[in-house]
Amino acid sequence: MVALTRIHVVVRLEIFVNDPNTKTGESPTLSGLRLGQWARVRAIDGGRFMAQRMGMLGIRRGVDVRVVHGPGPRGAVVQVGGARIALGRGVIEQIHVELHAALDTEANVKGEHR
């Protein structure tokens, strides 16, 4: 007979879901960005599961993202660090960002590699 052991894994997420100190209604979402535009993630709506999933993909509060393809009716492809991630329309509408004009300028000067 095999003895089963229960293992608890605790994952610390640095994402603030529905943070009352963050006014998400005033900030644009990823769906409002244009192709090639850089932004910093402010907050993620959508509940615990969505926050956890985005955290696993590297999308968390304070991370810089760039729109590589789209956004369109089906979603967008974003660059996070060195990875490119395809996100559906419903997801990109729940990721609130702040625009970074300085990052856009740096990317254009350096040939859009960051």
How many beta strands in the DSSP annotation? 5
CATH class: Mainly Beta
Class based on secondary structure composition and strand pairing: alpha+beta
Proportion of residues in helical segments: 10-25%
Number of helices: 3
Q: Identify the CATH architecture.
A: Roll
Assess the beta-strand content as a share of residues.
Answer: 25-35%
Q: What integer is the average pLDDT?
A: 78
CATH topology group: SH3 type barrels
Spatial separation of the terminal alpha carbons: 54 Å
Strand ordering within the main sheet: 4-3-2-1-5
Shape: globular
**Number of domain modules:** 1
Model regions low in confidence, pLDDT < 50 over at least 5 residues: 8-24
Q: How does the major sheet shape up? A: 5 strands, antiparallel
> Quick one: CATH superfamily?
Ferrous iron transport protein A (FeoA)
Element order, helices and strands? EHEEEHEH
Radius of gyration, whole Å = 16 Å
Give an overview in words:
The protein has 114 residues and is α+β, with helices and mostly antiparallel strands. The chain has one domain: SH3 type barrels (Roll), CATH 2.30.30.90. It contains three helices and five strands, in the order βαβββαβα. Strands 4-3-2-1-5 form a five-stranded antiparallel β-sheet. Strand 3 and strand 4 (83-88) form a beta hairpin. It starts with 37 loop residues before the first strand and ends in a 5-residue tail after the last helix. The model is unreliable at 8-24 (pLDDT under 50).
